Amino acid sequence: MQTEEILKEVSNLSNAGKIHLIEEIIKSISESDEASNMEQAAELLYSDYVNDNDLTAFTALDCEDFYETK
Question: Greatest CA span in the chain, whole angstroms?
Answer without folding.
Answer: 66
